[in-house]
Amino acid sequence: MATSLSKPSVAILNDYASLLLPKLSHLSAKLDAVAVPGTFDARDPAALASLVQILQPFSIISTMRERTGFPASVLNQLPNLKLLLTTGPGNAAIDLKACAEKGIVVAGTTGRGSEAHSNPADLGKLASFQPTNEHTWALILGLAKRIAAGHQSIMGGEWEVGLSSGLAGKTIGLLGLGKLGGQCARTAVLGFGMNVVAWSEHLTQEKADEKAEQIGLAKGTYRVTSSKKELFQVADVLSVHYVLSDRSRGIVGDEELKAMKKDAMLVNTSRGPLIDDTALLAVLREGRIKGAALDVFDIEPLPNTSPWRTTEWGKNGKSQVLLSPHMGYVEERVMNAWYDETVENIERWLDGKDLNNRFAMPELRR
Question: Which of 261, 275, 314, 316 has the fewest CB atoms nearer than 10 Å to its CB?
Answer without folding.
Answer: 316
